[in-house]
């Protein structure tokens, strides 16, 4: 069966974010979170810099599959410049979306809404949520410069 033009667009956006991830790299200041997905080996280090209540800078490094890398890239674009509360809301919308829940606010996710199809592949949900879970932990920690390492 041939893919529809929309499916091709989704794949192209995901591949673009995976092959040319936005905000990839490391920051030397901020809240640093290390997470891994022990079931597939994906690893992320997320660093978030807050200016008061706003995410003023964000970067990620590590290694992972196409879905994990694309999701991290999409997440950084979606939350940069957002308040902590706005970023947490986006993370919750994303988590619900990839587990099959529909929400009219999915548009707010930007390119990350293209990962909605992950819900059809339960083994890929952890790949797609790794960066978003790291973000949630960073939001919980706030201003403190910290590093935590654990699996999902």
TrEMBL record:
<dbReference type="Pfam" id="PF01592">
    <property type="entry name" value="NifU_N"/>
</dbReference>
<dbReference type="GO" id="GO:0005506">
    <property type="term" value="F:iron ion binding"/>
</dbReference>
<dbReference type="GO" id="GO:0016226">
    <property type="term" value="P:iron-sulfur cluster assembly"/>
</dbReference>
<dbReference type="InterPro" id="IPR002871">
    <property type="entry name" value="NIF_FeS_clus_asmbl_NifU_N"/>
</dbReference>
<feature type="domain" description="NIF system FeS cluster assembly NifU N-terminal">
    <location>
        <begin position="10"/>
        <end position="127"/>
    </location>
</feature>
<comment type="similarity">
    <text>Belongs to the NifU family.</text>
</comment>
<dbReference type="GO" id="GO:0051536">
    <property type="term" value="F:iron-sulfur cluster binding"/>
</dbReference>
<protein>
    <submittedName>
        <fullName>SUF system NifU family Fe-S cluster assembly protein</fullName>
    </submittedName>
</protein>
């Amino acid at each position: 069966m041939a893919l529809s033009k929309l499916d091709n667009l989704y794949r192209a956006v995901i591949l673009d974010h995976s092959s040319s991830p936005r905000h990839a790299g490391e920051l030397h200041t901020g809240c640093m979170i290390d997470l891994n997905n022990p079931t597939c080996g994906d690893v992320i280090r997320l660093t978030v810099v807050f200016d008061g209540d706003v995410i003023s800078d964000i970067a990620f490094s590590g290694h992972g599959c196409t879905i994990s890398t694309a999701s991290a890239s999409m997440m950084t674009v979606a939350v940069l410049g957002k308040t902590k509360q706005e970023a947490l809301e986006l993370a919750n919308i994303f988590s619900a979306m990839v587990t099959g829940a529909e929400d009219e606010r999915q548009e707010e996710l930007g390119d990350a809404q293209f990962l909605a199809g992950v819900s059809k592949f339960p083994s890929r949900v952890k790949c797609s949520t790794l960066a978003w879970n790291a973000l949630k932990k960073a939001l919980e920690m706030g201003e403190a410069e910290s590093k935590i390492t654990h699996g999902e």
